[in-house]
Amino acid sequence: KEWLLAGTRGLVRLLCRRLGERNLLVRRVVSSELCAFEQARRAAPDPAQPVLVLLVAEGSTAVGLVHAGRILYQESIQGDLAARAALGTALLHEIRTCASFWKKKSRGGGVTQVVVLGLPKERVELLGLSLATILPGCSVQCVRAEPAADARLDWLEAQFATGELALDLTFFLPRRRRALAWGGALALIVTVAGAFTLLESGSEEARA
Q1: What φ, ψ does residue 146 adopt, rounded to 5°?
Q2: On the CB side of 174, how many CA atoms lie within 13 Å of its CA?
Q3: What is the separation of C-alpha 55 from the centre of its chain, rounded to a whole number of angstroms?
Q4: What is the β-pairing status of strands 139-142 and 113-117?
Q5: pLDDT by residue, tens only, the chain of 208 residues
Q6: What DSSP letter does each residue of the chain carry, written as one string?
Q7: Could you give the angle at which helices 121-131 and 87-105 cross, rounded to 10 degrees?
Q8: Considering Cα of 156, then 132, then 76, then 73, what sign does the dihedral take?
Q9: CB–CB of 115/40 below 8 Å?
Q10: β partners of residue 165
Q11: What is the C-alpha to C-alpha distance for residues 107 and 200, in angstroms, rounded to an integer?
Q12: How many angstroms separate the CA atoms of 96 and 92, rounded?
């Protein structure tokens, strides 16, 4: 069985310590947002080219530009875009700013790929119509084509992404709490304030 929990960075440390005391040992910790960027980048028609990524969450929307394994631009718009259509104006302004940034950095290059994570397909299609006025010829992709009620699952699925941006941060945990345990049957997955933690139950014997 697997679970996802959300919390602050401090909660991660506390949770790791408490679970370690109960013989639940941390196997992997990654940044939730970085995994989402990686998931969105890989959904682009050509991931090797610059990708403008929109990560829509309940409290904010991140606008980023990903290229060559790096996030070159990142800003956040506060508010729930999925519930407040009025935020669309602020989003379009931020997208225009991001495109201008890339044009200057690349000496004339344009953004031709936009990938959205966290919005249902029908909302992404409407967004694509608006983007056509500021990014002519760009393709707009939805990470998944699920109904509105399932759009939040994009974030959960992204936690399993692997790649250049989905960095493994387990190294920064105390050694005992980042070891792999053997002999257990329970797996616990925890997402905490931008961090995703995979824990397993088992014996105190662990491999280095």
Answers
A1: -95, 160
A2: 10
A3: 7
A4: parallel
A5: 555 555 566 777 777 777 778 776 666 677 788 889 999 999 999 999 999 999 998 888 999 999 998 999 999 999 887 667 667 888 999 999 999 999 999 999 999 999 999 888 888 888 899 899 899 999 999 987 555 556 678 887 887 788 888 877 766 665 554 443 333 322 334 444 444 444 443 433 333 3
A6: --------HHHHHHHHHHHHHTTEEEEEEEEHHHHHHHHHHHTSS-TTS-EEEEEE-SSEEEEEEEETTEEEEEEEEES-TTT-TTHHHHHHHHHHHHHHHHHHHTTS----EEEEESS-HHHHHHHHHHHTTTSTT-EEEES----GGGTTHHHHHHTT--SSSS-B-GGGS-GGGGSEE-S---EEEEEETTEEEEEEE--S-EE-
A7: 60
A8: positive
A9: yes
A10: none
A11: 49
A12: 6
Strands 51-56 and 113-117: parallel
Other residues' Cβ atoms within 10 Å of the Cβ of residue 146: 15
DSSP string, 56-83: E-SSEEEEEEEETTEEEEEEEEES-TTT
Cβ atoms 26, 197 nearer than 8 A = yes
Q: How would you class 177 by CB atoms within 10 Å of its CB: exposed for 0-12, middle for 13-18, buried for 19 or more? A: buried
Tokens 């983007």, residue located: 131
| Per-residue tokens: 83 | 């519930």
Task: Evaluate the CA torsion angle 42, 112, 66, 6 in order and state its sign.
Answer: negative
